[in-house]
Design goal:
Immunoglobulin-like; 24% strand; 5-stranded mixed β-sheet; alpha+beta; 8-stranded mixed β-sheet; elongated
């Protein structure tokens, strides 16, 4: 019995250990052409370029390789962040052939995406590595010529906003990007002070101020009275008009309404004209 229990515990421990291991997806990738490879286990490479030089590159200037780790634990140095890469900034000379080994250490999906690459060489101007769950995947690209700063990030919802982003400078770069953890200030910095309500202080004011406050408050009873009167007038007018229009054809109803409106407008104009003439005569 003890031997059986030992064997069961050993199998459970082995299963847990294997589940936590980093899976290498490179041996399982299927090439779909155009630098696009993927497997059934959640690994993906898009925009891989092993040998085509970007315009302006006469030759490969250097061959470099980096390992990028992604996970929740790398966000710990950045308060308010949830996910991060282990390194937030890279710099290489133009026309470098760069291999990126991307390791996801979380039990969820993460990406390492680079934007702004030449569209004629990289579909949608993008180089993309992706792993679902703990795993490793590698991809290669050739950096363009010139001095430029490129965004690298995880494109899953809220992963970049919560800290999983960085910048890659080619040559001297073209400046720093905003909100790079540990590199540049956040454009919209989390602020938890607003969540704490301030103490409400009621000033000790004389009774006269109460009257001033009451004047500024709308009179709800007056508003209600106006609404009631308006509804009553509208109901009465609707009843009278319904009796008036009874038996009329549609064209007759329209002609009657147009004539009524014209009469009202003429009356208002004559009233205003009389008031103007009266005002002018009083001045003279």
């Amino acid at each position: 019995m003890r031997v059986l229990n030992f064997l069961l515990l050993s199998c459970m421990f082995t299963g847990v250990t294997l589940a936590q291991e980093i899976v290498d997806h490179n041996s399982m990738l299927m090439d779909h052409g155009g630098g696009h490879m993927m497997d059934m286990g959640g690994g993906m490479v898009m925009g891989q370029n092993l040998d085509t030089l970007p315009g302006g590159c006469d030759k490969i200037a250097a061959t470099k390789e980096i390992t990028v780790r992604a996970g929740h634990k790398y966000a710990e140095p950045f308060p308010g962040r949830m996910f991060a890469f282990d390194v937030q900034e890279y710099q290489f000379e133009p026309c470098t052939k760069l291999t990126v080994n991307f390791i996801n250490e979380d039990n969820i999906r993460h990406q390492w995406m680079m934007h702004g690459l030449p569209g004629y060489l990289y579909p949608k101007g993008m180089f993309h590595l992706e792993v679902t769950g703990p795993g490793k995947i590698s991809g290669t690209l050739i950096l363009p010529p010139g001095d430029k700063t490129y965004l690298v990030h995880c494109d899953l919802a809220q992963h970049m906003e919560k800290g999983m982003k960085g910048q890659l400078k080619v040559g001297k770069g073209s400046g720093d990007l905003p909100s790079i953890p540990g590199v540049t200030e956040f454009v919209i910095q989390d602020n938890y002070e607003d969540a704490i309500p301030e103490e409400i202080v009621v000033p000790d004011t004389p009774a006269a101020s109460t009257k001033e406050v009451s004047k500024s408050v709308p009179n709800d009873s007056w508003i209600s009275g106006v609404m009631v009167v308006g509804l009553a007038v509208g109901f009465l007018a609707a009843t009278l008009l319904a009796r008036k229009f009874k038996g009329m054809a549609a064209t007759e109803v329209i002609n009657y309404i147009v004539g009524l409106l014209k009469t009202i407008v003429d009356y208002i104009i004559s009233l205003i004209s009389g008031l103007v003439k009266k005002g002018a005569s009083s001045k003279t």
